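Trying the structure run again after the queue cleared.
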Amino acid sequence: MDKLSNILSVMEDYAVKHGIPILSKENGKLLQEVASAIQPASVLEIGTAIGYSTLLLTATIASGGKITTIEQNTERIEIARQFLSQAGVLNQVEIIAGDAGQIVSRLAGYFDLVFIDAAKGQYLDYLHKVMDKLSPGAVVIADNVLFRGWVSDDKVPPKRFRTIVKRLRAYLDFVDSDPRFKTTIWHIGDGMAVSYYQGETKT
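Done. Tokens:
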């Protein structure tokens, strides 16, 4: 665990130095707690960045489990590979380069946990594309869903952020009202939504 903590600390410093957004420690702790409770065998992560949350998740997956993570920034992919290799967990991770909006619908198999932390205006699109790949009892975790407080605030956000705020509200409305999900919205960091998949509802 000391080795893992040391590498995470180095990654935190790297993220600050290079201006790369990663999970806050509080949100990272929640991510690990939720994931550890179900010990997923198959994880999909949308948005790798430098592999910080990926590394957190490797400590929670079932023995022989696998994380599939998608990132379109090739430079960040190489950094993530280096960190995951140093941690000795690269064999548990498949990194796919490209646009998640195009890749998710082509993925095969089922996922016990999906972590969304990529283009905020695309969260609902990602979810729709992964719905038929959720295993029974799967959990979908989305980070930054309150986006600087504007999503849950009545105040009008700056014009350049209005589309993102509108789409994040649509995401939260969906996971909060659709009977296929039971959702808790955590007001920590920039907000995190934890949605438990209840299975397809019969009409």
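The mean pLDDT is 92. Worth checking whether this holds up in the mutant runs.
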